[in-house]
Amino acid sequence: MSALIEVNDLSVDYITFDGRVRAVNEVSFAIEEGEILGLAGESGCGKSTIAFALMRLHRPPALISGGEILFEGKNILDFDDEALRQFRWKDTAMVFQSAMSCLNPVKTIEYQFYDIFKAHDQVKNRKESIEKARELLKIVDIPAERLFDYPHQFSGGMRQRVVIAMALALKPKLLIMDEPTTALDVVVQREILQKVYELKKEFGFSVLFITHDLSLMVEFCDRIGIMYSGQLVEVADSTAILEQPQHPYSFGLGNSFPTLKGELKEMIGIPGTPLDLSNVPPGCRFAERCFRVTEQCRQLEPQLINNSHRGWVACHHVLPVDVAQPYNSLEVDA
Hints:
- This protein starts with a strand and ends in a 21-residue tail after the last strand.
- It has helices at about 45-55, 80-85, 100, 110-120, 125-140, 155-165, 185-205, 215-220, 240-245, 250-255, 295-300; strands at about 5-15, 20-30, 35-40, 60-70, 75, 90-95, 175-180, 205-210, 225-230, 230-235, 305, 310-315.
- The protein contains eleven helices and twelve strands.
- A hairpin with a 2-residue loop joins strand 4 and strand 5.
- It is globular, with a radius of gyration of 21 Å.
- With about 325 residues, it is of the alpha/beta class.
- Helix 6 (about 155-165) runs parallel beside helix 7.
- The chain has two domains: about 5-220, Rossmann fold (3-Layer(aba) Sandwich); about 225-330, no CATH class.
- Helices cover about 30% and strands about 25% of the residues.
């Protein structure tokens, strides 16, 4: 496989009255053709900011202040307005968190499909648009006769599938899903993700899947990147993130939800609160919440490095392979 999109040292700032606040700090990763990459982390860690940056959807006071985003070798940060218009939806499409916020409540689903096709010169007339839209609805298991309904006439899960159908209308190579199942129950969540997985195998697109639910992500993704306070702290295969985490933060996330099998265990959350990005101290950003912190962690910022076959990690004290103790019982090796 080859990389469809490469993100190199991406930084995104928000301009405030007190100065710049860096929401994403020199983040680098790649998504291969046909791969599902997940980004997980607490609210405010920069996941959605990265998603918006990949499609250049940021508006002031946000700005991309550094790095490059290469899509098939071309830096999208250099695209003019026309190149961006062609890039969005045709090459990269996005499924947002709230389907109701994405759909126009006073326009039928048919009209909104037509709007997409017309903007990208994909149809000659309304009849052709209706035929294409009906086929897309069938793909996501929605009866074609619902095409002329309004968004409020659909359930939450059906609205989300409509948005997915719209995102796939121009057969993009990359589908970005930003917390697409947050407001849905677990049964509908699974149905939607299963459908996206089937469509990925059929059409061959890549997926960037963003959520705070690590357990959901492990089942769906090939690889997972863990973000903390605007930085990537670990990138590894999805099963390794859960079963053999390298970073203490990844370990804490994995121990924040119960297993469905085995003995009952007391759930221990990650102590403390997320970092104030307007006042970033030296050293590791996770230091004040970490059970393995040393003076080195408080002074020297760890870099994301390739740790042999285990993936990438940014930590001075990488966890051993056989971590099984409660979160607060591990100590740094002497």
